[in-house]
TrEMBL record:
Superkingdom in the source lineage: Bacteria
Designated name of the protein: Chromosome partitioning protein ParA
Coiled-coil annotated spans: 235-294
Keywords for the protein's UniProt record, in alphabetical order: Coiled coil
Amino acid sequence: MLSGCTSGAKAPVSHALFQWVEDCPMNTLNQAQRAEAVLFFDEEGSVIKEMLYHEFEALLDAFFALPQFAQQRVQLAYVTIDLQLCIRSCVFFYLDFTSTGAADPNWNIPLREMAERAGRGPDLGAGPIRLACRSQCPISWHQPSLWDPALVSGRNDLIELRECIKRNQLGLARTEAVVDQVKPEQLHMAEEHQWYVQEPSVSAVHVDLAALEQEHQAKMEHLVRQQRLRILALTRKHEEELVQLKRETEQLQTALTEQERMNATLMTRLEQEASQYRLTRNELTQQLRALEKNSEYKIEAFKIQFDAEQQARIESAVADYKEQLAIREVELAYREELDSQLEDEIEQLKVKCARLEAESGSKLLERMAGSGVIFVTYQPGAGHITLSRTDVLQFIESPLAYIAMRCRVTQPHYEQWLSHYKHPVCQRTLPGGKPCNTPLQRVESPRQFIRGESDCCLPHQTTIFLKNQAG
């Protein structure tokens, strides 16, 4: 314990002592004055439930269940909190729930040990915290059970945690930081001839420089850790986008190969037809030249014979076509009658199929759910959604309505946000009637999307605001 300074003297403080306090495990400092809590996140990165650690232990011991999380894998965060409601350590982990909403009985992550052995993280108000997540896991075999917090613009899970703890909905006791005050009797006025600025000694300057250098090094390490976490999150996001881009490129390459094959086939056919056309033209040219060499009589005879042959061929072709037309009319009448019968049978089969589908669809889903099949879909704004048996039928009937319900917005609001998400540009028009199409920052969450603001550039937002004020 460090004693206060006596009157007229300064007590030297050892730099090594402060270094030991900084490097020692965080749980050894005021551990008894820290609270432990567990917070539940939803797919959008918002805290939806809070509980103290002893309540979480009761949940693990099956003293109660949470039916709202049945058959779900939920993202949770374990935090330790000091008396000033500042987060000192944090562990981001998954917890699976059974069909009744009970916690997975095989869950066995040592949260306190993970927090003690975690590496440094960002400063959330009381210095760098201890942070354990998938990309910074102190116990390697527990890495698959951890998740990385989002640190991107529009969603910062660490800031969400800090603000949630500051609201203090858990009712934790809070005290202000105590600052030691100097007693009046310990203050002394120096003589007037001593009122001058004393030049610092070389040793004092050296100590100050060393302290500044150490502080600067600590700040740099803190910034490097923050940037590494952010770079890791961005790298994973870019890797997913790269995989999607490669998949689309492969599909386009396949389509291009198929188109080239079709073009080659068409070119071969075109060359064959051109060759046949040249042969026919050569034959006709030769025949014409032979006719030109004969006399006019022979030419006229050939013309008459040719006309007769052509007329006979035409009459024969017309007769054949009439006969074929009569046959086709009979076949068409028969086919129409057959089509009518088939349409009646199709309608009957549709009714039977609809009845069988209504009777067997729910049973099939019930059998699949009983066999452990989990229905998961990924939708923009909602992320990966685990569907129950009843939710599957509702999702199939109206996907957009179901996703909007899960995002806690209306279906028209979700459709407007989805249009903005796919093409984030200004939707207003310029004075000439052309669309503005100014690129905008994409709103990642439907709940944060505001019609007339999120889909408009800053000049159009100002114009709308002025119109509303004038109105």
